[in-house]
Design brief:
This protein is an all-beta fold. It has 2 domains: 16-324, Tachylectin-2, Chain A (5 Propeller), CATH 2.115.10; 330-459, Jelly Rolls (Sandwich), CATH 2.60.120. The chain contains 2 helices and 35 strands. A 6-stranded antiparallel β-sheet has the order 24-35-26-31-32-33, with no helix packed on it. The radius of gyration is 22 Å and the shape is globular. It starts with 20 loop residues before the first strand and ends with a strand. It binds beta-D-fructofuranose.
């Protein structure tokens, strides 16, 4: 449905994916003159992490996508080995795009350059070269510029960085014209000593609100309890950003943005209606899982972006909800029978499933999707667990989160190989990829109980 004319059997129908090659981070996200421009890290030549270009798709409705030619391809001395992640902003009726040029020097060492490219039509980008000097005291791991304009009209730019002591951090720069940038300092006053590198920094400012979320993707965080079980994490601190000091003061500890398996390196932007939207990469995984992706063997492509999520921050809580535009994909609503344990047959794999639960009925809840994904709620511990089969080791794998408010609602966007679960109107999310030959388009409620008020399903237009 969404990429008109693409009919490959196992392609996603409402997630953005590359027609060939490997996709990673969403980058440069912007709505300009009514059109959403979604760029992504893309190796069009092979399904590995070399030759990163900026892939590009456009849409007027966040549902129907058109493929565009690559916006950036490695070509110059400052980006010859990869046009890495970055962001966009509209300035003087043009799109100003900031990205990191990756260079492998003749002696094998690497350098990174923070670069600018400008476009007057949203399709062709003219490279202007590096605009920021390498900051002293940091290794070559300085990348992923995220630009925004403050309430005070000053432009600000965040850079993921690594100190010479091999600690992850984020640097902040300021500018009045997007060309000359002044290095301020680290965005946090106090070091967190949290991992060896922080990638893809972002500041999620829900307009008119005092509290914002400082998002980053730290590397090198050991698993702890039910947290940090993926190879790398993406998470946030809530707090206040002070424009006079250019500093973020956190009021919470680091929290993962998504509790599933592959969500990583997300980016936010404000669209022309003022909504704060976010896409993530689904995503980061061990290389043996990546190499073994069936989509590589079958059709030579790897990875998808998450569906667009609308972000709100209120009453000390960050919520992520699927954008309302996705409702246009809904076909006729079907109510699901929840009093039997036999699998209920579905017409197809592309579905939105809604389950309303009674949080005051203190029982457990379990359901299974496609004979593969298991969702288990343990009432006593207030613990939600999602599990799947690892498509290489064939072992079951689990990810969990505590949901203190109890389980009230699940909204699930499912395709055959990618599932996104929104808990309690977006208070928590779980995203994952899944592949298993035994999958069937069925859903089962394993523990029929009075906890389910109703369960319904919309097959989604493909
Ligand atoms: C995050 C990341 C970024 C980098 C890009 C390269 O996944 O490693 O830090 O710019 O991917 O593709």
């Amino acid at each position: 449905m969404n990429f008109l004319g693409e009919i490959e059997e196992n392609r996603p129908s409402f997630h953005i994916y590359p027609d060939q090659g490997l996709l990673n981070d969403p980058v440069g996200l912007i709505q300009w003159k009514g059109i959403y421009h979604i760029f992504y890290q893309w190796n069009p030549y092979a399904t590995n992490h070399s030759h990163k270009c900026w892939g590009h798709v456009t849409s007027r409705d966040l549902v129907t996508w058109q493929r565009e030619k690559a916006a950036l391809i490695p070509s110059e001395w400052f980006d010859k080995d990869g046009c890495y992640s970055g962001s966009s902003i509209v300035y003087n009726e043009q799109i100003y795009l900031f990205y990191t040029g990756n260079v492998i020097n003749t002696d094998g060492s690497k350098s990174s350059y923070q670069c600018l490219a400008v476009s007057s039509d949203g399709i062709h980008f003219e490279k202007k070269g590096p605009i920021i000097d390498h900051p002293a005291g940091y290794t070559r791991h300085v990348r992923d510029p995220k630009v925004w304009q403050g309430e005070d009209n000053c432009y600000r730019l965040l850079l993921g960085a690594q100190t010479e002591n091999l600690e992850g951090t984020v640097l902040i720069y300021t500018s009045m014209n997007l060309q000359q940038w002044k290095f301020e300092h680290k965005i946090l006053l106090e070091d967190l000593n949290f991992g060896y590198m922080w990638e893809c920094p972002d500041l999620l400012i829900d307009q008119g609100k005092d509290i914002s979320a400082f998002v980053f993707s730290p590397q090198g965080i050991p698993a702890f309890g039910i947290n940090y079980h993926n190879i790398f994490q993406t998470g946030y601190l809530l707090g206040k950003f002070d424009e006079l000091k250019n500093q973020f003061s956190p009021t919470t500890a680091f929290k993962e943005l998504d509790h599933g398996f592959e969500f990583y390196a997300c980016q936010s932007f404000h669209d022309e209606t003022g909504r704060l939207l976010l896409f993530g990469w689904l995503g980061v995984m061990e290389s043996e899982l990546e190499i073994g992706l069936p989509s590589i063997k079958e059709n030579n492509w790897a990875h998808v972006l998450s569906i667009p999520r609308e972000i709100t921050i209120a009453a000390g809580q960050l919520k992520q909800r699927p954008v309302v535009e996705l409702q246009s994909l809904r076909l006729d609503k079907i109510f699901l029978k929840t009093t039997i344990t036999e699998p209920l047959n579905l017409e197809q794999y592309a579905n939105e499933i809604g389950i309303d639960l009674n949080s005051s009925v203190r029982t457990n809840f379990s359901m299974n999707l496609y004979q593969e994904i298991q969702i288990d709620w343990q009432e006593n511990e207030k613990l939600l667990t999602v599990s799947r089969t690892n498509w290489i080791t064939k072992k079951r794998e689990y990810r969990s989160a505590f949901i203190k408010a109890g389980l009230n609602k699940l909204q699930i966007f499912a395709e055959k190989s990618v599932i996104e679960i929104f808990v309690n109107d977006g208070s928590a999310t779980f995203s994952l990829r899944c592949y298993n030959e035994k999958m069937q388009p069925v859903v089962s409620f394993l523990d029929p109980s009075s906890k389910i008020i109703q369960a319904f399903l919309y097959p989604l237009n493909q």
